[in-house]
Amino acid sequence: MREINNSSRRIQILALLTIVAVVFANSLFNHFVGDDEALFLKNTFYHSIANVRFFFSKHYIANPAEYFGNEDYFNSGSVAYRPVVSLSYLFDYSVWGTNPFGYHLTNYLLHLTNCLLVYFLVGRLTAQNQLAFFAALLFGIHPTKAEAVCAIGYRQDLLAAFFILLAILKHVTYSIKGISRKWFWPILFYFLAVFTKESAVVMPVMVFLYDRFFHQEQSGKKVYISYAVVLVFYLFVYLFIFPNLSLVQHQFFNVFSFKYLYAIISLLALNTLQLVWPFALQPLPPLYLPAEAARVGIFSVVAVTIDAFLIGLTVRFFKQQRIGSLFLLWFLIFYIPISNLVPLANPFTHRFLYLPSIGLLTALAIGLMKGYKFFAEKKKQVLFCAIVGILSFFICLETVRLNMLWRSNVSLALNWVKYFPSEQKGFAIMAIEAHKALGCPTALPYLKKTLEFEPQDPRMHYMLGTCLDNIMESKARFQRAIDLNPNYRAPYIGMGKTFYAEGRYNDALNYFVIAHGQKRTFETYRLLMLTYQRLKNKNKLLDVLSQARTDLHVPAQLQVLEEIANQDLKSHEDAP
Fold this sequence. Notes:
This protein folds into 2 domains: 6-405, no CATH class; 455-571, Tetratricopeptide repeat domain (Serine Threonine Protein Phosphatase 5, Tetratricopeptide repeat, Alpha Horseshoe). Helix content is 67%, strand content 0%. By secondary structure, the chain is mostly helical. The radius of gyration is 28 Å and the shape is elongated. The protein contains 26 helices and no strands.
């Protein structure tokens, strides 16, 4: 391979980083979205570096069922064993606390670094600096990257790609230069990659195919054995020590049905389409399965055609343009873990394409370079470049737009309600966010719509109960929430407050005691003390205050409780 001109490379690197940095700059000012709140605001797992010891305990793996109705947690927030990404969260919290800017900055810098690594890897494999630049630029500005970059809780896709790119870059470099003494580094990066995200397990297949068919020299048995040892160790940890609980939840498919096979074929075609033509994309709701993949229809012909073309192109490139075939194989190999061969909780989501897309977008860059060279006349070449440039500009605008939609849970939910009206998640999240921040008049229509989708959702019944003017209707909603989930604290508090408002303090006390027994919080201490004050039971009131002094450690909260204890009953007219 010839050396890439250093001056030209510096200019290209500067241009690449500048363009990608500008496109994703607005993501830096986004809020915590999606699972981020549960990860960093309600979860104390990342609040101390000392908690790294829990990376090796039962506290690490998150059970999705534990999140329901809870106000705080203590786990990694991950359903799979991903300690490397958890370390990055510990670092972020130690520097930034609960300021989302710092977390977004980490994601932003990781994405810029990955663009740089794609540039170096493609340059190393092809010795074509222009191709390396266009491939890295396509990867960097592509709209499907918005989800992985903007959602802090999805950092594992960025970080796994970072280690995979480093590992393969080192592997290719050592193979080309015939270095045999430094294989420790690609093995280490592979180790870090699999413990960042499980989809990295297929990397040894990629390096083997590179050695066997493209470099035409194998790296030696010791290298492959080392990869295999890492893989076996990881699978043992993943399957037996820290099993992934999501593998048995939210399965859309019967794996022995034609529907399952059709969904796999359709999802491959849909993912390929949105990489090749990334316009009018929208953020996807959680646990989303596109209608085109859910049922057989006219799209089935399109899906089979696209998949056949993709595979046929890979075979043809292998015979005529091996480097193009290598990158198409990259896409297909790294697509395997997200292909739903093992059914996924999220069968279709943009962030999963972060790593596989490197291959398809590089193959697309190769095609564009060939298209440019196809035109012999200068005018046609200029026209071709102008068309590609205009399309690239609109791709950048698409990415900026998606970054804006990922700004907050409200902006996401409103978009889901608009573009995915048949999906319950958008209405549910909008109902929760509106109830929390915008008030009942805004929340009511979303609460009612969510209950049309899912009448068994206790959260919606509880929140609807808090928004109704009729006390009897509110009680019915609270009781329904309790019946649906007896371990859900909020409706007990809601029911207690309605009895308190009616002056039925003993009935209110019963519900407050249940809520307090489930979890002792400042709110339940306050409610108990107000109720005992109304019942003129000063001994119980003081007992509760004494216990609060032991359990609570926020001076402002204790001061409020002390004031309640010292208040004259006759002057106290506030509702709880």
